[in-house]
Amino acid sequence: MCRHNGLMTSDPAALTPFSDIDKRPPEFVALLLAALEAMAVVPEIQRVRQVAREALRPAPGQRLLDAGCGAGEVARQLAGEVEPGEVVALDLSAATLTAAVDRHDGSKVSYIEGDISALDFPDSHFDGVRCERVLQHVPDPDRAVAELVRVTRPGGRVCLVDTDWESMTVDGLPDHLVTLFKAHLYGRVMREQPGIGRTLRRRLTRAGAVDIEAMPVTCYFATPGASISVLPMFDPQLAGRIGIIPDDIHDEWFTAVEAAAARGEFLAALTIWVVVGTRPN
Ligand SMILES: C[S@@+](CC[C@H](N)C(=O)[O-])C[C@H]1O[C@@H](n2cnc3c(N)ncnc32)[C@H](O)[C@@H]1O
């Protein structure tokens, strides 16, 4: 039985489901947005964002760009920190931006549709730029990073955040299931750029940024319940629907996940990289 009804596979040419959200059925768009919002409240993700916030160093009066803003919660938070400055929240997806605008709280944020690989802003337009979990979804991350640096003023900071999916580690499950799952994840679901997080430092260096700091933040989950918003492969409601677990091991996988949790032996971890650099004068 195929559980995912084509939700992940409506366009086989798409790099990832997040690279062309607007071409997906409305049900899938709602699913992705709900996933983003659920993730935003996970303490481990808040820890990553705190590291990123400190790296960006927002200050009153600045103009910042949140490139690939999703539902826009970080842009709105930053707007409070740069007051009387402003934040531009940019995303490729019109559906995502509509959701972000629906959540607007009156803070000084402008929502703009655009592609981080070809930004419609002049050079040096922003005091600082952040870009979280977007580069894994673009076809040419180096080009996008060059754009992010170009629109940052000399002396301004560019903060990149992305996952190293190949760092994902699991304990408590039978080895043969983990092997089958990883072959599916890296061979079929994430064919492109699963290790993007660890490449951010190199990409910022190539784009000419200086004073680069790279901070790997490892998110640790001791129960499947704590992990599901970040690791959908442990979510029995979602995993099958988005095709992240192969159909033929789905039931065995979740039986094993439940059993590991019941024994208190479940463990999962994932490293998300926060990398910051400065545009030279
Ligand atoms: C995984 S979400 C991350 C959203 C947000 N940064 C967060 O951390 O919650 C990826 C976002 O990147 C956007 N995106 C994908 N490709 C893009 C591109 N080329 N330019 C701008 N945004 C893009 C998607 O529409 C989606 O909103």
TrEMBL record:
Q: Which CDD domains match?
A: AdoMet_MTases (cd02440)
User: One Pfam family, short name please?
Assistant: Methyltransf_11
Cite the Methyltransferase type domain residue spans from the record. Answer: 65-159
Protein name as annotated? Methyltransferase type 11 domain-containing protein
Species per Swiss-Prot/TrEMBL record: Rugosimonospora acidiphila
